[in-house]
Amino acid sequence: MLILLEHQAKALLADAGIEVPRGVLLDRDADVSSVIARIGPPPWMLKAQVCGQRRLAWGGVVRVPSEEELARQRAALFERSGQAFERVLVEQDRPVEAEWFCAVLLDPASAGLRLVLSAEGGGAVDTALAEGRFASLLFDPASPPDPARIASEIPLAGPAMSDTAAALCRFAVERDCLLIEANPFGVDGGGRVVVLDAHLTVDAAAGYRQPWMMDFADEVARLDPDVAWRRRWDGDFFVLDERGEVAIINTGAGSGLFLIDELRRRSLAPLNFSDVRMVGIIRQPERMHAVVERILEFPSARTVLVNIHAGIGDPLETVHLVLAAAQRLREARRRMVVRIAGRNADGAAAILTADGFTVRTSLRQALDEVQAVAATVTA
Amino acid sequence: MTPLREWLAAEQRVVIQGISGRVARGQLPILREAGTNVVAGVVPERRGDVDGVPLFATVAEARTATGCNTSIVAVPPEDVRSACLEAIAEGLRLVVVLSEGVPVLDAIAIKRAAGGTLLVGANTPGMAVQGVAKLGFMPSNLLRPGDVAIVSRSGTLSYEVALELTERGYGISTWIGVGGDAVPFLDLAGAVRVALDDPRTRALALVGEVGGDAEERLADEMAGLPWPVPVHALIVGRGISPERPMGHAGAAIRGGIGLYETKVARLRAAGVQVHETPWDLAEALARSRNES
């Protein structure tokens, strides 16, 4: 899954013929004198291009009444944000007669996509949706609904809204979207339906057939370290608590979640979620080294739990990497608890034991040891 | 329809699509050792055999030559859709998709095309009907014969549950990993039905996690109905907010679905005992078995 930046989403929508406000991207120091020529006269909307959807909460969207204000507001935005972003989007301010909400999203239970439409968009949408003031339509991605079907099944839509909603449904399929949210969108003074704000979540697994995703992911990765990690190393390593005392090197997402639960249940603070993926490490041995160096960026993580329960992989193929990780962590005076289970676990454990490391086969015992070691470190 | 155990015992003829890949080739001897009757491999660009298993260009050719009726799919993600549709078109009864990274729209297309084919996966360690067939890569040392079924959304966590059960002397009847993808071919409720259909199953261990609504749908399906066997669940992700990729609309439509607390409450209301660790689950299951 990849959550796109707003300007990326709008570029894709515009490319598909869906009306969005004209806009221009500016970095922190770019000259603003060409903005009028590129998108028309103010007022404009100035929008920080950040990951996530909490932008309004910290004032990441500002209405700019004049050219003189643009550079000043942009500087203020970078100054006060505390957020990681590189560029701002400056857009035409396109008032609409009424703010609508439209979403196309994955409906896993029905194995389809669902169109959701509400006449109460913008800031009112959460309440409207929670109170059921919306209509929806499930469709098979193999046959996205045409405007006639939408107008028939969602009468509130009307012809213009139905056209745009149908275009968004087609777009979702053509671009492998998991979620499109157009909020708000509506009819402007010129009678055209325009999407004023858009959030897109796309299916990163489809990147091989959506080549634009790679470029977009590169930009998102510069702003989001978790995305950067996944792009570089394929596995997952999310920092949950920068002051966490126990770092986790683990294979498997479910067991990764469990380790976080269990450490917290034992009143320990986990540094991270980890699924380094055993088979991936075999193909990409430097991933283990990268995990260790990432952990060493956090001095509070004095204890490291390595948990490998082999199914598809063979621990004998990766034990030399675990050993190198253990040695590096020992040099850095981190305490390590290793647990290995599954196929050929005994052989892998023997190699580590020969180098002075204790290896557990029981996860429960390993967690008990982590608890004891962490207590010692704290004391 | 004949229960899967009986059918596999009598008629299984397994084709591995993508048999020349590293994963499939590495697992082949382990599958055979577990009793799986691998009769064919499909690799479009190759002929000959892989470790004695004859290769064919298509499932149709493999079916004509060997009568294969079950498939393990271990092809690259971009080939999963065509591989599965081919297997479905040939009328295979069971298709287990081990591949990970399948695009969601491909998964939807496959699921909608399934017809009478039982699809499991994708992104799963597979399934095993203990003593009859292993159609995946779960650790064989955990496949001791027994009467506890495991149905899991998490591969590695199901290993932990199986290990704890094994250490307490319990073995497995049917083990199904439904997979960790957004649109699993066989959902948790469907997998539970298959597991309970195994006449050897006397208890069920269920492994779930935050996100999605699989546990809630299972609970809804079972609400008010008596479970035929004791059901013990492990749900993980208590401290993690499920990602909110579905935005305002997803939150409104699902209304709290996907949260740890919602899952636990719904399962408990449906008569499931929910635990916090694999060892708690195994100990409780052992206690309930001793009491009965």
3D structure, described in words:
The complex is a heterodimer of chains A (379) and B (292). With 379 residues, chain A is α+β, with helices and mostly antiparallel strands. Chain A has helices at residues 6-15, 35-39, 67-81, 125-130, 147-153, 158-174, 212-223, 225-233, 253-265, 278-283, 286-296, 315-331, 345-354, 363-378; strands spanning 2-3, 23-27, 44-48, 61-64, 87-92, 100-107, 112-118, 135-139, 177-187, 193-195, 198-202, 236-239, 246-250, 272-275, 303-310, 335-342, 359-360. In chain A, helix 5 (147-153) packs across helix 6 and helix 11 (286-296) packs parallel to helix 12. In chain B, the strands form two sheets. In chain B, strands 3-4-2-1-5-6-7 form a seven-stranded mixed beta sheet, with helices on both faces. Chain B has a seven-stranded mixed beta sheet with strand order 9-8-11-10-12-13-14, sandwiched between helices. With 292 residues, chain B is of the alpha/beta class. Chain B is globular, with a radius of gyration of 19 Å. In chain B, helix 4 runs parallel beside helix 5 (104-113) and helix 7 packs across helix 8. At the A-B interface, strand 6, strand 7, helix 4, strand 9 and helix 9 of A face helix 2, helix 5, helix 6 and helix 9 of B.
Strand content of chain B: 15-25%
CATH topology term of the largest domain in chain A: Rossmann fold
Q: What strand line-up does the widest sheet of chain B have?
A: 3-4-2-1-5-6-7
Distance between the termini of chain A: 42 Å
Largest sheet of chain A: 7 strands, antiparallel
Figure out the total of helices of chain B.
Answer: 11
CATH class of the largest domain in chain A: Alpha Beta
- Can you tell me the number of structural domains of chain A? 3
CATH superfamily grouping of the largest domain in chain A: Succinyl-CoA synthetase domains
Give the overall average pLDDT of chain A.
90
β-sheet strand percentage of chain A? 15-25%
The gyration radius over C-alpha positions of chain B equals: 19 Å
